[in-house]
Amino acid sequence: MDWVKLPKRNSTIAFIDTRRGIAMLYRMSLVLCALFFGLSGCRQDYSLSPPADSEKITIMVKLPKELKTETVWVMYRSATCKRISLGASGQRTERDGYHSVYKELERQGQSDIYQVELPKDGGGACRWHLANATFGVVYADPTRFGEYVTAGAGGGVIVIFDYNNSPRGGPDFKVDGDLTIKRDYYPWVKEAFLGGYHKRISLAGEGGIYLKYQALKARTVYFEPILHSAFTVFSTQPKEKKEGNHTAFTYPDGTVVADGRSQPDFLKLQSLRTGRAGDCLSPWTYHKCPDRRPQLLPEWLPVPDKPGFGQYLIVDEWGNKLPTYDYRLVGKDGRINKWKTDAKGLTLPVPESMHPLREVEFP
Questions:
Q1: Helix ranges restricted to H, 249-306
Q2: Cα–Cα distance, 213 to 132 (Å, whole number)
Q3: I need a labelling partner for 346 at 20 to 30 A (CA). Which of 5, 196, 271, 319 fits?
């Protein structure tokens, strides 16, 4: 045993066992290992190793010619390899570990379809599983809108394949089975002055920058962004931040609106393009539409707890369910079913004896 003699203090000779010091350093190294590596051990293998027979999830994008695909950010999670963190008071917190990989969507021949396959089972010692994928589209050549214009946001999609939130939060929509996404987008040229000048070309769509879906059973994800290039909206940020100053939006018809909103009025853009009233473009205001185009889907959906009865689904021309919508059905036996659809767009239960329907009306 090695001993280090220290100077006398209060007539007492103090000695330190260097072996104890080494042990303390060793314990500190373990703590640092947990902090810096964030998982349950320093020597464990955290790499992905998908089995050859792992089930694949296919992501496909139908790409308009003006746009390009972004790199797909894929996240795997593990309940085996935890991420460990220490709180302000030293308490230990464990969360599922995560591992990110980045993939490129590849063009399929000479088509406009780009796709990538993702192993559902990430394998490895950590037993990784596919958690979520973030992808999207942006303008391929922003300078077509000006020499110093750069690509902005919009046109993003996040698909969540497990019960965890994505890095950008929980889902906006939950779907069963495979996922098909078709959305309208408009070019949005925005000029900003506050915090430094910049000019960007973004995609204005319904919702935020990212559309977030939870699709636990999906094996195919299909995304078709529909770009309406002839309907560009421009926005100009005020040069001075003060009360009453708002970003001004100039729409394709020449109207200028500065009402305090931070992004274009999507329904206004839809209305300008289609020539239809804005109320006709939202399922929640569709009952006020002067040019309604509801339709009753032909499939009769049996009611599980009511043998011999089923329901119909009423949707608008885009397939959106129409809640609290008036309808009138006349069956082959002359019986009438008349009411409003429920919150899911379904009619009241209809007896099988009414089939096939003789008349469908939307008063």
A1: 266-274
A2: 10
A3: 271
Instruction: Quote the tokens at residue 121.
Output: 């089972």
Specify whether 16 is located in the same domain as 96: no
User: Is 0.85 topped by the overall pTM?
Assistant: no
d(CA 212, CA 286): 24
The C-alpha angle with vertex 157 and arms to 152 and 163, in degrees rounded to 5, equals 140
- Beta strand ranges found along 87-197 (DSSP E): 92-103, 106-107, 113-119, 121-123, 128-139, 150-151, 156-160, 173-174, 179-192
**What tens digit of pLDDT does each residue of 37-84 get?**
444 445 567 888 999 999 999 999 999 999 999 999 999 999 999 888
Note down the domain range covering 328: 295-361
Mean pLDDT (the chain, rounded): 88
C-alpha separations of 231 from 147, 152, 186, 228 in Å: 21, 17, 6, 6
Picking from 121, 17, 134, 31, the residue whose alpha carbon sits closest to that of residue 75 is 134
Q: How many domains does the chain have?
A: 3
- 280 lies in some domain: no
Question: Residue 189 in contact with residue 231, Cβ under 8 Å?
Answer: no
